[in-house]
Amino acid sequence: MTATRPVALMKAFIVDRYGRGGSTLRAGEMPEPEVREHDVLVQIHAAGVNALDSKIRDGEFKLILPYRPPFILGNDVAGVVTRVGAGVRKFQPGDEVYARPDKDRIGTFAELISVNENDLALKPKKLTMEEAASVPLVGLTAWQALVETADVRAGQKVFIHAGSGGVGTFAIQLAKHLGATVATTTSAANIDLVTRLGADVVIDYRQDDFETALHDYDVVLGSLDKKTLEKSLRVLKPGGKLISISGPPDPAFAKQLGKPWTLGPVMRVLSHRIRKAAERRQVSYSFLFMRANGNQLREITALIDAAIITPVVDRIFPFEQTNEALAHVDTGRAKGKVVVRVKETS
């Protein structure tokens, strides 16, 4: 009779059930992840904390993303490779890496995670583990919005909402690198920060109305509510592009998920108003739900190592305070990114 091999366990922060209004994660143990042929097992040193984590925890994506409780939360990772699958060619044990895991394989609020090698990149040499963990999700969001979707060119005008936030602080620097004139909104307390990052036009959203101050912009990167999104259409010139990372999702997103027939009609209805309003103003609207991409992350690494982009980290929490880190993100007052330190670096 063969003895059953005990399942190796790791510490993690777990969603047991979806809940609204800042429900907490359970600190517990989960089985160590499986390492498939093209997977890399990463010992997690630090994990970025994002508004996306709160939305997943609260059930906002439960109809479109395949997470069945109990599952481990977390979408940003920096750490060290401990093991590789038989088919892995790009990494080896000991490599310092970072990633935004694929949307189907999240779980960075833990001691270990298994990531497909195509979603992974070597960590920027200039950064600590905590700084590196702050980058992947916001960096890829900014890259896919400004480079891939908008194709921003030198001399264009780009308006980035919420410039002192995680995506905003990264997107301002990337847009400036691409040669754009950059406008952003922030509070008076953060004007110096966004100006230092490269913003040319800064609007204090508590004092001034961006739609009267800005005109003839080529691109708007939106991250706020529907009302703000609709007002953003008015600052674009004909042919301009409104790209939203906060929704509403459009039919193209259903296609990206591989569910054009089941979710397409729903997303067509959800985005009907903003798409029609954009059409009337001769501009385009698109929803961006960023995806894992190791090649793009390597491009971002090069910009960081060349000191063209510098991550902005607001606070670093110890692993046992992951719920407190999420609560801090939920306040909406973080400057740049919030990070959890999972493992002390010797």
From TrEMBL:
Keyword terms of this UniProt record: Oxidoreductase
Query: Has UniProt tagged this entry with the keyword Cytoplasm?
Result: no
Give EC number(s), comma-separated: 1.-.-.-
Q: Which residues form the Enoyl reductase (ER) domain?
A: 22-340
Do the record's keywords include GTP-binding? no
> Which InterPro entries does the record associate with it?
ADH-like_N, ER, GroES-like_sf, NAD(P)-bd_dom_sf, YIM1/Zinc_Alcohol_DH_Fams
Cite the Gene3D superfamilies for this sequence: Medium-chain alcohol dehydrogenases, catalytic domain, NAD(P)-binding Rossmann-like Domain
Identify a single GO molecular function assigned to this protein.
Answer: oxidoreductase activity
What is any Pfam family matched here? Answer: ADH_zinc_N_2
Q: What's the protein here called?
A: NADP-dependent oxidoreductase
Origin species, per record, is Lentzea miocenica
